[in-house]
Sequence to fold (312 residues):
Amino acid sequence: MSRAPSAAAAQQAFAEIKALGLEPHVAEIESLGYTVIPPERVGAPKLVPELLRRMCEISKEARGQWPDLQNGTTHADAADPIERQSFLLAKGRVFEQALMNPVVQAMVAYLLGKDAVLSTCGGRIKGPGALPLMLHTDQTFHPAPLPLVCNATYLLTDYTMENGALCFIPGSHRLQRHPLPEENFHLDGLDRVQAVAAVAQGRQLRIRNPPDLAVVEAPAGSLAVWPGNTWHGAVPRSAPGLRVNLILYFCNKWLRPQEAYRECLPQEVLDRNDEQFARLVGSDIFYGWGPEGTEFDAPKAFAEARKRVGTI
Fold:
């Protein structure tokens, strides 16, 4: 965990893990640095197709065509076949439901504590391409020994090597550093920028995977969870079709979230959810004040931040 919890907090966090039958997945995170929770344990069979449908609708609104899930023709780009969707928490109740899944909440509380906040709710639609997502940690600025952020990703389509799945270096969370170039994917002697340019020009590169790479093979409906100090990336998709996921990315509340839900989430979304939801989007954060000056009362600071940008 990211800080030493009180005895009561630690007991409560693990009681929730036990109640949901997640002990083996906590053990995998401690040992490997990641875990993949199967659909029957995630407990959201109706949620996954709804998430997939809503992300396809958002894609059509932005790009003018429904994603070609079978053949991937709508996302055919050898160098960058990924559509990135952002600020999804404001784009449908289904994303609110995904955030509040008890399994997600229990795993995040175990990794970061009860005061973690949502940093990003974003989506990825990935078509066939030639290049991998390079190994990295999510703590780009803080390669600390303990996790400051964590990731809970819903797999909305099947993950396999051919489908361009997520991948990890097991045990890398213990190294407390970022991967070195020689420990990453080998792109035929090129760096990432050079490789993108070469592929865009039609060159076929010889890609070599890092040693000990573990590729996630899991069905749609699974949930991948890992702390911010684990090395991870994704292999290229060689099969036709699209890989789709929903990323819920969390951080300690003293870190700056990537998306400004605290300030900009529509009031109607807050009105239909509970206090825990509001806390996840920043209602307990008092800093970040503006011209009005210092305000250490969290509810007042929350309201002032939203007034400042015209949300309320």
Remarks:
- The chain is about 30% helix and 15% strand.
